[in-house]
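User: ok so my PI wants both of these folded by tonight, can you help

Assistant: No problem, let's get them done. Here's the first:
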Amino acid sequence: MNVDMVYSRNIVRAPASCTLLAAAGLMRDNHIGSLLVTGEAPQEASVLGVITDRDLVVRAMAHNVVPAEATVGQFMTRELVMVPSTATVYEAMETMRTSGVRRLGVTDSHGEVVGVLSLDDIVEPLAAELSAFAGVVRTERFREVMKPGRVS
């Protein structure tokens, strides 16, 4: 299974000047755990990094930062780990594991960020694949029970 089958194409962006309070609101309103951080206009589309719900808590709130005064640019992770949309889910999981991240930027054939892949995006389809594999094992056992002594 390839990344292009499961990644989220709904990219929510926030400029680096966005307050942490506004960023938290964007995450809440969009039911997401990360925002792509962009530059200010006119370069707004350029991705500078990512800020996650964990960044808000561990990097900012735990240090007594005032959310309405601090910006995502101060607390974002500057390196967004990327994976091409043509990568397999297993390659993406390995990239997450080796990079120590739960989310990856997804790029198209031109290297442009076209979405985000999170662990949540992977869990359900991966579970379905494992279930299908378990079905193969069950079917094989059923065949052995129903047709004893036959060699296939």
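One down. Here's the second:
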Amino acid sequence: MKNFVITILAMLLGSATAWCQISMDPVVPDVQIVPGPSTDNTELHIAQGVRHELLMLNYYTIFDDLGFTVRGTHVTLTGAVTNDDLAKWAVAAAKRVEGVEQVTNKIEGLPPLTQDRPIRFEAVRRLSNGGLAHYINSSSPWIHVVVRGGYIRLVGYVSSESDKKLATVVVSQVPEVFGVKNELQVVSSKGVTPSKK
């Protein structure tokens, strides 16, 4: 009986300290954060502010991945960028958001390898011509193509599992590519719902 009570108390304490966390990776204009039933209003306000600030950054391109996680008043920036200054600007932008008390920068700079540049452009060209142009050919692309050392990582959002699979097939045919990692998320027309961690 004593062990049962201790187990129940541990479960209650664990649930009381559970964090609500809002994550978005990558940040794209047409995909919104949709509040879940357990979303904290402060975190939602911060997440919406950080999303807006990151979208306003100059030089954030289809070849970059900027994401973030909000936990309480702490923002963690993630991703990989082709321009090291973009990471600095992202940190400054997140710090400007009302309610943010701490910003951790986990954005990686992509090495300026000359062989990666043609892979980036060819991957985007093939996605555009391969039936996925509606995700690519706009001022706000849903799919981002991150290339490092000949490896392609697809990040972003698509509206169906078949489009996600097609993206892998299309970019796998790019010459000089060593591998493709598809991290595309299938989302509804509403957007991304915060996750509870």
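Residues 1-18, 193-197 have pLDDT under 50 and may be disordered. The first helix runs from residue 2 to 16. Good luck tonight!
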